[in-house]
Predict the 3D structure of the following.
Amino acid sequence: MVLSSQEKEILEGFMQEAEGLDSPVLFLLHKIQKKWGQISWDSATFISKDLNIPMTQIYSAATFYEEFTIKPMGKNIIRICRGVVCHSKDSWKILDAVKEHLGIDEGETTDDGSFTLLDSSCIGQCDGAPAMMVNDSVYRDIDPAQVMKILDDLKNGGG
Ligand code: FES
């Protein structure tokens, strides 16, 4: 993939926002991840050149932190909490149901690009366990039937 002029423009905007920051790389990786759902090689190369930071350093950060991915992600990112409290409230049953429903394992994306299922540690919603996040939305006290409905609504353009 080669960056389009529009993508370059967006990246240049991110670079301007990052000016003067102590850790511009992490800031930029967050912006890129949020915008495109992945850290592409081309985006990483762009910031490497612009900041004059070795590509190895950019890619180390992109692969070290779990919130970044170098693989293309689905339109909707599902994180079902695997923390201790959620696990004790059967979050694993929800996870199994989602895997079966979507036909994917954790870390995988559906063939149609609608969903990526990620492994997740505690998402800070223990008093609403079991909990999950889909994109930026938090769902608490969930059960498998509710989750299937949420996913189907998202797939059909609702949610
Ligand atoms: S353990 Fe699941 S939200 Fe904390």
